[in-house]
Amino acid sequence: MRIIIIGLLFGLLFLASCDDKDEPFKDFPLPPKNEGMVLIGSEGNFQFGNAELTVLDKSDYKLFPEVFFQVNKYKLGDVLQSIYLHEQNAYLVVNNSQKIEIINPLNYRSAGNITGFTSPRYMVAKSNKAYVSEFYANAIRVVDLVSKQITKSITIPGWAEEMLWLNNNLFVCNANRNKVFVINTLTDVLTDSISVGAEPVSIVTDAAGNIWVLCKGSKSKQVHPTLHRINPQTLTEITQLKAGNAEDEARELCLSADLSKLFWISKHVYAIESSATQLPALPFIYSNNQTFYALGFDPHNNELYAADAIDYVQQSMVYRYDVSGALKGQFKAGINTGHFAFYKP
Fold this sequence. Notes:
The protein is mainly β. The protein is built from two helices and 27 strands.
């Protein structure tokens, strides 16, 4: 009998210790303060299930790691590809877990999830309708955000990356076809395509309403990355710029708060005005043996965030820069930090 009682006591102590370990942060700032928060998505390692959401409180630049797990008591999943803020929710696109986790950015608690994807990459939305790009599915998924269900698939050939919803058109970067596909958002029909450089991956629209597409280039084929400025009405190219060297593939196109300046990674961090006609002679931020992997511009504080993946195994280092490129701070985030979202209540 004594052995049984001792065993039960040990069991209760073990359960109590587990409960203590899994408690949410006792001092977690709920709701966020007026200065806002940075939601930092780290992919983790493929098939390790160690994707992570880190939150930076900008009122005092206090860092909160593993927020999703701490609040919801379960792991986010495998490869957090992107984060999309829409109305009252943050949508966490978890690529290899084939789902989108929905959280309330005021308290980081789960508001459900959307499943049925093959390999989701990026999301855009208006009102209750969303589009999600896929890596392997040869399709763009149409999602009803009220029912949290995929309602339709639009067939496109090949791997889709970032998208831009402009007026009644969805512009889709198709990385292995060297095209931007155009989908009519009223009919969900593929209507046109625009030829661009090698492997288009990022897309934005500037203050003048022009579309900019960043093409990764090809190291193996020695094709340098390019930037393309496109007229969204005529679907024709206005300008094509070299965006880096052939051995330095490009990624992570983003815009300043006033939409007049573009930033991207091609080994170093580059920046140009939207009126530019050529690549700047010097990078905006030099890589000092850093492996720049992610980029995001905070429109509320006019700061540029850049993540260094280091060796793709240890925690990433994240740097904050002002608009002149001066370093303002740095901190560690999760493994392979790949996305920033800037939330201000």
